[in-house]
Amino acid sequence: MYISNEGLLVILFVGLIAGWLAGKVVRGAGFGIIGDIVIGIAGALVASFLFPKLGIRIGTGLVSEIVYSAIGAVILLLVVRLVRGGGRL
User: Fold this and answer.
1) Are the beta carbons of 74 and 43 closer than 8 angstroms?
2) Which of 12, 28, 13, 7 is nearest to 77 (CA)?
3) How far does the signal peptide extend, from start to end residue (predicted)?
4) How far apart are CA 27 and CA 6, in angstroms?
5) pLDDT averaged over 10-residue windows placed end to end, the chain, 89 residues
6) Cα 43 to Cα 10, 18, distances in angstroms
7) CB of 55 within 8 A of CB of 89?
């Protein structure tokens, strides 16, 4: 799968927003604003590769990418909290 430079910039921008949003959704599991943004970028990358392969489609456009990325970031935050926090959600 090839991602253009513009696509990578969109993923990074959306990851910033998704990380902030995931930090608000998963309270107490965040890593501060910078950590949440990094988790959001990682969640955006994971979501942009994984969701289309699973056939999960919400729609098209920037809003759907933000939703995908926020879901990916929330899942990633919960997994990191599960691993780091001794198994409690």
Assistant:
1) yes
2) 28
3) none
4) 32
5) 73 78 71 75 79 80 77 81 65
6) 13, 8
7) no
The answer to whether 55 touches 33, Cβ cutoff 8 Å, is no
Burial class (CB in 10 A: 0-12, 13-18, 19+), 65: buried
Say what the pLDDT of residue 16 is: 80
Q: For residues 85 and 77, what is the distance between their CA atoms, to the nearest angstrom?
A: 11
Going by C-alpha positions, the residue among 21, 23, 71 that lies closest to residue 44 is: 71
* CA–CA dist 11, 69 (Å, integer): 8
Q: Encode 47-61: b = buried (16+ Cβ within 10 Å), e = exposed.
A: bbeebeeeeeeeeee
